[in-house]
Design goal:
The chain is mainly α. It has two domains: 286 residues, no CATH class; 89 residues, Alpha-Beta Plaits. Helices cover 49% and strands 10% of the residues. Strands 1-4 form a two-stranded antiparallel sheet. A two-stranded antiparallel sheet has the order 2-3. Helix 6 crosses helix 10 and helix 7 runs parallel beside helix 15.
């Protein structure tokens, strides 16, 4: 049985998942509901794992399903569902066709890199579970890497293409499309995402799936599980004619046709080798029998085990050193104002320890007040979202970020709950206000405040200045965004490390009481 259909199935499923994943990161019309978005991202390993740890719901068990599938068929996640894997496959496919046209050699078997990949995995786990730091996950998780590239690179291109088409349609008096303004661009995030794009493009062209088998902690974890998978790819020695076609087609570099060997823990389940074999000697087989391992191989296994153990200890020392650096960084930045985290994130510590900086919430935010941080959270929170009130303000009734967050960094909240979540407090600097400095009337902050926590009170003659009622302020930033003073605003939001609960505005409470007191009139009073 040639099993050629496996490659076709892989190509179709991976492209569908890849395109849907891209779209949820660039969609400005919010065509997909939060349930659809969570369904698409259900099988992303790291977000599902973090969401399960934080929320403990069945809806966050995608990583368990991926683990079970890996125990059955190997690393199918890496070629079917991983957006970064499919991104690499696209460039691998392009480069392979160019090489075929030039009649150059394709790929060949490469030795494993257990020391490097196990060290990175150990460091990631220690940082994650002992120190609650996601720095390695933010930088190395394939889903988060893809999210950064899609949001910071693909989204602006999609916006420009939409605006161009909108202008074309407008010329023909059609308004089916409408222009969308790209309100703010975080250049550090764009530059970093561009570097990632170029790096993975070059790696794909020259080293194929090297990242997946040498760096990626998800690939390493699934590779360990695939060692004991129920079904494995195997070369039939009786059918093999040692032509080397399977090795040349293997993008993971895990096939050694001279020894009829496949390192299945490094196989990314692309199934290119199956149709490439002219004799049908490569296929999936039930692997219940334990294979005989030569003495030399067992010696290598023991040496690898010792190397891995030593590396793990060294990795732990490295992690402790890195933790000291992070701690020092936090101490030096403790006097500065902390960034404001989104409603539903509970506290700055919960957010930093759970957000993988995938930037899905940044795209979902309708006002674009959510922007990638640079060093505002410290090194461990690189590019995690923050509320930038110089760009926009947080819409009082919007809960979109809490609906789409796949990791539990932002818990789901209702509109009613959000209306009393106090993420910060507005602070007024009297000397900077144009009313005081220029004796000019201004009430921009009060007019934009949705809870009327900023109220204008008499100051001098007919002039009035802002007064803040901290009990009903929710820290939405509308006042800071509206303030005309530059470069510093005369009114700004100071973040809460732990989110508080604000009181409902008195007028709103009285209005609700009146609505309850009014009895509906009878339909037939006579």
């Amino acid at each position: 049985m040639r099993q050629k259909f496996l490659k076709k199935i892989r190509v179709i499923i991976s492209l569908v998942v890849f395109l849907f994943t891209i779209f949820i990161f660039i969609d400005f019309a919010h065509l997909f509901s939060s349930k659809v978005i969570h369904a698409i991202l259900f099988l992303q390993f790291v977000p599902s794992l973090l969401d399960f740890v934080n929320v403990l719901t069945f809806a966050a068990t995608g990583f368990i399903f991926i683990s079970l599938i890996t125990l059955l068929f190997g690393r199918v996640y890496c070629s079917f569902l991983c957006p970064l894997g499919v991104f690499q496959d696209i460039f691998i496919g392009i480069s392979s066709r160019i090489r075929k046209f030039k009649k150059g050699r394709r790929w060949k078997y490469t030795s494993s890199r257990h020391i490097l990949q196990y060290s990175i995995l150990a460091a990631s786990l220690v940082l994650l579970f002992l120190f609650r730091s996601l720095v390695f996950v933010n930088l190395l998780d394939p889903y988060s890497i893809s999210g950064k590239m899609f949001t910071n690179l693909f989204r602006p291109v999609y916006y420009m293409a939409n605006n161009l088409m909108a202008d074309v349609f407008k010329a023909f008096h059609s308004y089916a499309l409408y222009p969308i303004a790209l309100k703010h661009i975080s250049w550090p995030a764009v530059i970093f995402s561009g570097m990632l794009f170029i790096t993975f493009m070059l790696l794909s062209v020259f080293r194929t799936r090297w990242y997946c088998n040498a760096i990626c902690p998800v690939g390493t974890t699934l590779g360990l599980l695939s060692r004991v998978s129920l079904f494995k790819l195997r070369i039939d020695e009786a059918s093999c004619n040692a032509c080397g076609a399977c090795e040349r087609k293997c993008k993971a570099g895990c096939i050694d046709y001279r020894r009829n060997k496949i390192d299945f823990d490094r196989c990314v389940a692309c199934f290119n080798c199956i149709p490439a074999c002219p004799s049908g000697g490569v296929g999936y087989h039930l692997s219940l029998k334990k294979e005989n391992t030569p003495v030399t191989e067992s010696g290598k296994s023991r040496r690898n085990f010792l190397k891995t153990s030593v590396t793990g200890v060294a990795g732990l020392g490295t992690v402790l050193s890195v933790k000291k650096i992070f701690a020092a960084n936090e101490k030096t930045s403790s006097t500065s104002v902390s960034p404001v985290t989104p409603p539903g994130s509970v506290s700055i510590w919960h957010f930093r320890e759970t957000c993988t900086a995938c930037h899905l919430c940044i795209n979902a935010c309708p006002t674009k007040v959510l922007q990638p941080a640079f060093l505002e959270y410290g090194l461990s929170g690189l590019f995690q979202p923050r509320l930038d009130y110089h760009t926009e303000y947080c819409n009082f009734e919007c809960i979109r970020c809490s609906e789409v967050c796949p990791t539990g960094a932002i818990f789901p909240v209702t509109k009613e709950e959000k209306s009393t979540i106090q993420i910060g407090i507005s602070k007024f600097i009297k000397n900077l206000c144009v009313v005081v400095a220029n004796h000019t009337a201004c009430a921009a902050c009060s007019e934009h405040c949705p809870t009327k926590a900023v109220e204008m009170v008499p100051y001098l003659g007919d002039l009035k200045i802002p007064q803040i009622d901290e009990k009903i302020c929710v820290g939405c930033g509308a006042c800071e965004f509206a303030c005309p003073v530059r470069p510093e605003r005369s009114i700004y939001v100071e973040a809460h490390n732990y989110h508080h609960t604000a009181m409902k505005p008195l007028k709103k409470v009285e209005g609700e009481k009146k609505e309850k007191e009014v009895k509906p009139a009878d339909d037939f009073p006579f």
